[in-house]
Amino acid sequence: MISNVGTQQYILPDFLIIGAAKCGTTSMADYLAQHSKVFIPKIKECRFFSGMTPDFKGPGDYVVNQEMITEIGDYVNQFSGQEQKFLGDASVDYLYYYKNTIANIYKYYPKDKLPKLIISLRNPVNRTFSMYAHLKRDLRETLSLPDAIAAEKEREEAHWEWVWQYTAASLYCKQVQYFLEHYDADKIYISIYEDFVKDTEQGMKGIFEFLELDVEYINTEKILNPSGEAKNKTLQRLIVNKGPVVASIKKLIPQGLKDYFVAKNLKSFRITEDDIALLQPIFKEDIAQLEKLLNKELIDWK
């Protein structure tokens, strides 16, 4: 959409997929991007509205520091030439930095042209473990799950990227409540990951209707952004390396071949009963509060 703020005119997204991380948002963005009238930038997570600064200090955090878009001109350029399409931005940090996100949306959008927001929520026990497995996959996390959870506060104080806040990022109630209280609730769509996975076609139909788009055929067979444990750590370091030299070489490799090596080098890394016993008490009260907030029983989460 074209947004006029003072004397400035910006081309900004019509909708935002705002999180949570590891709740199917990568797949959701890919499915929406297949629609003939939708455009989502190749930079899946622009991170502009969260107001982060590129100075995170955790292992591998240099990647998010490099990719983060902090200037409005750079952000607007992501949508240049696509004005005739329905524009979207999928950045999962927007839910975690809920106060900054809403403040920055109001800064750049007139109140009568606010973007629609899509929130995807997953069983917090599984989301937490999936994020942990994701960082293990990328060879960033070296601690056991209990030790990693115990280290959250220390890592936050050392200014590691927010994704290291495994449990804090999975406490959804205050995040969702803030959006519902400080935003137009009619412009917010909440998708429950477990329901979406059970019937993805119906889930996408609901999102299309929310965005007021015609329902189109979408290929939902490909699994995107899988987690797991690396079989060969040397190969995995090459796969996850985003340095300029390696990145230039990767561009010469067909995407299908890259996907093949990514999948082949991962082995199953599943949550255990001990992991569940550790995590469930952390989220019990938050789940109960979220059920009241949404007026929905979250059966698959308990």
UniProtKB/TrEMBL annotation:
Record-annotated membrane-spanning stretches: none
Protein's name according to its UniProt entry: Sulfotransferase
Pfam families: Sulfotransfer_1 (PF00685)
Residues covered by the Sulfotransferase domain: 13-225
Domain of life: Bacteria
Gene3D superfamilies assigned to the protein according to its UniProt record, in alphabetical order: P-loop containing nucleotide triphosphate hydrolases
Keywords assigned: Glycoprotein, Transferase
Organism of provenance: Neptunitalea lumnitzerae
